[in-house]
From TrEMBL, chains A, B, C, D, E, F:
Family: Belongs to the HyuE racemase family.
Name of the protein in question: Hydrogenase expression protein HupH
Organism: Amycolatopsis acidiphila
Molecular function as annotated in GO: amino-acid racemase activity
InterPro entries linked to this entry: Asp/Glu/hydantoin_racemase, Hydantoin_racemase-like, Iso_Racemase_Enz_sf
Listed PANTHER family: PROTEIN DCG1 (PTHR28047:SF5)
Length: 239, 239, 239, 239, 239, 239
């Protein structure tokens, strides 16, 4: 199976981190390529950043499909350009939010998300409403760390634990989703730390969830519906 | 009052049509400027087109605010880049969907939208869920005409009437919203034609609704909340 | 444009206050008449008061329409007799709740209402459900001051600020609506006081919102749908 | 047990019919008094009629409670003044809608209402939203007969059967509620006629449902919550 | 009228307590039989216990109907096997949850449930969603006492009061439902204790609510819809 | 990885069919065991059948976990005893409904289910509400074939195609889920047949979806939350 991961950021550093993480999740039969956009933001922390990254993401998704990718992961929790991408290619495409939350929904009653900054909370709540998940997903908390500081795993883990615990204690959530695909390699540790306090709380890593989701879609032989994602009519478009 | 209208299309023709339409709605005290994006699609008929138009729209919105605009109308029913724009400027910004539907909600129980093509129906239904209006807005129908053919008012009016009447007769809607800001100058005629059949059904023109909405916001002294639309953190961004 | 404001109270004092407030919001081209009911309560602070005021309100609305009013504002946040009035006249009619909340919905994700007494909170929450706004409007708080004591602007402003701040700090709301049309002349000051603490939070004055809403409806050439508001069948009625 | 039935109509004829019907449902231990309002409409077929009946209904409810009534039924499907009445008396009060629909909810998945005229359909749908029942109650159909013609049981039964059958066949509803308390003495026949076609469909008579509901409330020792229905503050009120 | 109460527990002690309680609620004309299952759990405190009790409950319900019971009450707040039972008999069947909550919905805006252990809270919240009551029923609290310790009325009452008061004070609920049919004989005392603090809060006893509900259904001449509860096709089944 | 499939039926024939189907979906590294219950129904076509199968399913799930299974699939679309099972074992457990519908939600806007008989439609709609998916899953249609006749693939495929096409044409659904785990080996053919008519509509096979779902859960290192699924308290239980 051939998968492409599109990083919606202009930084090569992040691309490198993603490459390592991706290999952790996939089997030996899956061939992954990680690419990044050429124009756009250094990180996504607002709807503004999402909009700037849009055209670049779509360019890379189309290139990937033309190059034979059987599935594409746009590695950002805000699902930027995901629905647009489904209109223009004939393979499964997901972002970080949708597969992580769908996985979480089968693990407990209420799903809580812990993300980076207050800036993206309204965007995430808009996604929850857009996808129709308000009955089951309500709690959105923040570690209050910009994306570009997430490489410090100790601080990140401490703050994730604080917020996850608070959400569970207040009975806001019984399952935790990490709300940023830049929170790499901490899900298992957080899950362990929470369990050590007495109650097993599953923690979903959005990168792992997305990659296994795409593998499943390919193995199930499905891809997005053309009755929801119609091909855009031909017309003049200036890139 | 100084207003800017941003057309998310690369065509000067449409910009001209908008300019005339806009003058029809505003009073002599309001000074309007109509601008268009430089890169993007010739028309918006998909989430793909919306994403391509995003960076250009934001560039024009920022320029407008810097140039003293007191409010900005992004003239597209899909509300492209509207929420992103609210993050980066300190003046009211609306697209076509939100003010038209909000106006309609005070006129009858259920609101029906008649738009251009099947391609944009899922996008519009996503907006309905995102804004939380599913209890009151359900019917989305199409005239099945591409945006660039809307300049034929007779065909447009005939098909709008067909679809609006069908929505009302099936009790899907008691108020009609025109679901494309390119449907210019037909709302009043459609309203008249429907009334001639015995029951007054209000028809909302999204351009008029948006412009009067912005005038009201300015006169009320309000603008988008900074607790929902936080300013994007400073960072490297390649345009 | 000719507008009528109907005060659902039997007090001339309040009518005077309304008259001054109304002139503050409207342009020189709009001609306003303020009238009051002859039978009913001294203030509206319960569903009981609303019901008592109903017949008097309808009498005044009908008289206004017969006298040439192009739009009618029933100046009470509980929207008393608003839907009944739309059945019997052919011009736009609004109360205080609907236009204020609709305006607020375009300014931020969640709308919070600060009203007078605990007595009216269930009535307001019933309106929120009736209008289908539960996904976006949840917080209803009180200053705990009877309507007839609202003329003390300092106490009112202090308590409004306390409650609005509490709603924003608890992330219940990012936009504030004043939940009583008797809270006159304080919206701008409250907005300023909240902004002075660091984050701009828009505050909607229900009187201003209603008047500009009606102006917009008249300029858009619309009025309530006769498919929702059917004319009541003729029959014997003892006033 | 002492019950009062308040007819919100100015006609003695209807009061007589109600008296007979009421006796059919109650046991020998229950003492019923049927009263009517002095000012208001001859029938309720609009929100306008409801508003006109309001003060008269409240006057009778208060009088009944003062006279020792242990529960009050306001015999109209629109639940006029029901919530206002609960604020001013200390005994259970219901209208026609609430107990009929609550009874029906325990009998099948979706509840369908068949009422008199298109005029009251939006009012009934507003009640459904107000009470929060939209997930289970959706279908509202009409026999298209004014209230004052309902005394013709053959036509009424034929049309009720037509509409109930249509609702069941379209899978809109599996339980039927008669949507007017003036549809007297036909529920059992309709239920029989539907069952004769092969599938048992329960039919709820709103008068019977309301009376047994009140009996149950009294026997359970409960009455409306004073945390929802606060007593209206004392003030000047001109009747 | 002949009613059967099915206890889904294997203990004779509980059956005895139920018998006494049941007689408290019903009139002299109603003849009640209390039976219990032969295989299953000693108490129901999980979905696991519910599933174990299922076949035994259904056996007793069928036996009761064959023996002439006109209505059946499965005395457990989790409504175990209730919907299955409605498929196989032609008489009204209820559990503890549905009639208690439906009764409560007519007494105030928001209903709060106080149940036994945290273990059953997700099950109760699943029922709330299944029945479509999320807009009106949200608060589920626990006294943290296993079912088999409920016979200590003092501790039970103290803890119920604590939790009910907390729900009311936090404005989570204005009506209280006892969330276990094993909480026998305390509803009236709890209601009194709450009222003594100043505000009347109705408290629903699920056993009383269920019994009176069934009496009403029988008197109204209705039973569950065969369009929702279809008879199971004949086939091999090993008990 | 070691997986157990529990068939909630007493028939060895069905167990054989499941075994073949299961091998089709899983990789060579996954070791599957298929077991069946000893007491219960020959097929599940009602809530009654579900309840009868409950204790047997739980017995097999517990045995499987004790025997080292890392995940368990209860192969029935009604998710019988799934939530109960999660309370008693420490490994992922799913039925047919949940993973199929969650997979489908990422493939298009609205999900339609085509199941066997009208008898199970209310049960499936109850699951939709219980899981909180009403905004996205609405259409439930039937091929009107009992489970034990599904072995005729031609008739089954013809009727599935009829119903799936009807759902898509009526715009009820853009993604199809097969609503019975006994519909084996037809999903791909149905998907092909629908695509041949011009529009690609994904079709989800519930068995494949469930197995890949469990594989993903195991690879992600997660299992159901103990804050939702608490271990049942110890007590006397008669099997």
């Amino acid at each position: 199976m051939k998968l492409t991961v599109v990083s919606p950021l202009i930084s090569d550093d992040f691309t490198e981190g993603v490459r390592k993480e991706v290999e952790h999740w996939l089997g030996p039969d899956t061939d992954v390529e990680v690419v990044r956009i050429q124009r756009g933001p250094a990180s996504i922390e607002s709807e503004y950043d999402e909009a700037l990254a849009g055209p670049g993401i779509l360019e890379e998704v189309v290139k990937a499909a033309e190059g034979g990718a059987e599935a594409v992961f746009i590695t950002c929790f805000g699902d930027p350009a995901v629905h647009a991408a489904r209109e223009v290619v004939d393979v499964p495409v997901v972002g970080g939010f949708e597969p992580a939350v769908l996985h979480a929904l089968a693990l407990g009653e209420h799903v809580g998300i812990v993300t980076v900054l207050p800036n993206v909370v309204p965007m995430i709540r808009s996604l929850i409403r857009r996808y129709g998940f308000t009955d089951r997903v309500g709690s959105v908390r923040v570690v209050d760390m910009p994306v570009l500081t997430l490489h410090d795993p100790d601080t990140l883990l401490t703050r994730l634990h604080e917020q996850a615990k608070a959400a569970v204690d207040a009975d806001e959530a019984q399952v935790i989703v990490l709300g940023c695909t830049g929170m790499i390699g901490v899900a298992a540790s957080l899950q362990e730390r929470l369990a050590a306090e007495g109650t097993f709380i599953p923690v979903i890593d959005p990168t792992g969830a997305a990659l296994l989701w795409l593998e499943s879609q390919v193995r199930l032989g499905v891809r997005p519906s053309r009755a929801t994602y119609l091909p855009p009519p031909a017309k003049k478009r200036i890139p």
